[in-house]
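Long-time lurker. I teach an intro course on protein structure, and each term I like to show students one example going from raw sequence to a predicted 3D structure in token notation. This year I'd like something fresh instead of my usual example. Would anyone be willing to generate the tokens for the chain below so I can use it in lecture? Attribution to the forum is fine with me.
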Amino acid sequence: MKHETFHYKSLQDVAERATELNAYLPLSEDVGALLSPFELAGRRIDNHIAFQAMEGTDGTEDGAPGEKTIRRYDRFSKAGPGVIWFEAVATVKEGRASAHQLWITPENVGEFKRLTDRMRENCLKENGYEPLIVMQATNSGRYSKPHGYPEPMILYNCPPLEDTPWPADRILSDDQIKRFEEAFGRAALLAQEAGFDGMDLKSCHRYLICESLSAFTRPGEYGGSYENRTRFIKNAYRAAQANVRGDSFFLTSRLNAYDGFPYPYGFGIGEGSMEPVLTEPIRLLKELKEEFHIPLINISMGNPYKNPHVNRPYDHGNYVPEEHPLEGLGRMMKGLMEIHEAIPDLPIIGSAFTYLRQFSVNQAAAMVENGACSLAGFGRMAFAYPEFIHDLKAQGRIDEKKVCITCGGCAVLLRAGIPAGCVIRDREVYQLPSAD
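-- Reply from a regular --
Happy to contribute to a lecture. Here you go:
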């Protein structure tokens, strides 16, 4: 299917096209549901908007926040989302996605603490409240580039992701996996010391924990059965829980409910079909909630390196998907609703709203109204137009001349390992590399 360029002039235009495509796309004229306060994780949250983890590739060589990192979180915190899902922070040096990915250590934890204090002060001064701040702890696994070039650490060879199979010495042993489980424990201790309210054990987009959930073909105690494939994430949670002090700091995850790869290479899928089958993701969420008392979950899908249209529908990219962007949005919204119906007392942060530009808030409001998610997560929009929350409060709408246009420029910068941001709305700071 050839993509249509985004051309919708009204909510009715969007609704009519979604109906033609049989895409599940709730929309609401009234955006008030996004702006009301509510209780989450024992805290008052002042609105139903979350800024997703948007990595900037601009930390120092030793992993501390750099100048552009601080600038980004100044903009995010002044914008006033109820939740700021702080970007991916490596748990081990070899698991960094670039030489400038953030990496929390005992030596730089104080610099993270200064940044979280600054974020709260910014938001309180500008908006009259403090945001909930969650640190995303990661091991980049097959996407590790700690020195600027690929040094993958994989759990199994995955044909959909490898044109040429990685050699056997890139496949982690069980003992190596156990060492990385413990690293999430150390990260939790540091995240709490750094002033974060909670920590996300990153389980999405085919980074290491996420990959473990689809390790059907791996032998041994970390592959094959459901119990084995969920061993890594549960042990990492246990390690983190053992290092947390008190009950004010919580654990959670940004979790892929659907990888978008065929069985046996994807999580959240059945044999013989590419449609989501959420039986295992829902089972896992119920178990994480019961054992670790997770107060919320952030749901994602797909892989930004291989099938980015699954979680980040776009008009312009390096390939044309077989589906219309509204069909991708519909899959995400339907998945959120299915998870909510199965676990109604687990608050959910939803994803993928940005594609609808000025109408994204109408879709987000409808999903909050119908209970499918407690917070609407915005990633690319936060890069392009963080102050959209102020405009929404003042005018009941956002400015179509300021929104993200889903060009993918921020992702190009990230993949190139250089500081990432919006090349359209923030072009004085961020520019695409030249073709030379």
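Some talking points for your students: Residues 57 and 419 are 5 Å apart (CA to CA). DSSP finds 13 helices and twelve strands in the chain.
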